[in-house]
Input
Amino acid sequence: MKGLITGVMFVGVVLVVVIVFTGNSQSAIQDDLCRNVSDLQSSMTSLTGLDASTASKDDFASGVEDVRNSWTNVKDSARSLTKANLQSLDAAWDSFAQTVGSLGNNASVSDAEQAISQSAQGIQGAAQSAKQSYKCS
Output
């Protein structure tokens, strides 16, 4: 009987340790997601803040690449988070990617900035909603 009680207590302790570890792990992943969503917002702000009168096409392309990298980081961290719901951010990203993809090589920075304006706002809004949903600071 004493062995049974000890065994049950051991299993209980193991379960508590697993639950605490999993909770802390998810919390760290959520913090990572929050940081990556903030980075996405920052890279989008930098891209949309380019001065069309002085920025080159290379500056714009570099800004787009920074946004893409930030998006990849968001998606990677969301994959690791249990029950991550980024549907609105996914839709906003799809709109942005389609808009950027439709820009021709001949588009000026000014035209490109105008073209992405609406989809960039969509990403900013969806990112802010995601941050509120995940209680990011």
